[in-house]
Amino acid sequence: MEANVKISTLIGEDQIKKRIKELAKEITKKFNGEPVVAICILKGSFMFYADLLREIELDLTCDFLACSSYFGKTKSSGDVKMTLDLAHPIRGKHVLLIEDIVDTGLTMDYLVKILEAREPKSITNISLLFKPEALKKKVELDYIGFKISNEFVVGYGLDYQGYYRNLPYIARVESMN
Ligand code: 5GP
Question: Domain of 70: which CATH number?
Answer without folding.
Answer: 3.40.50.2020
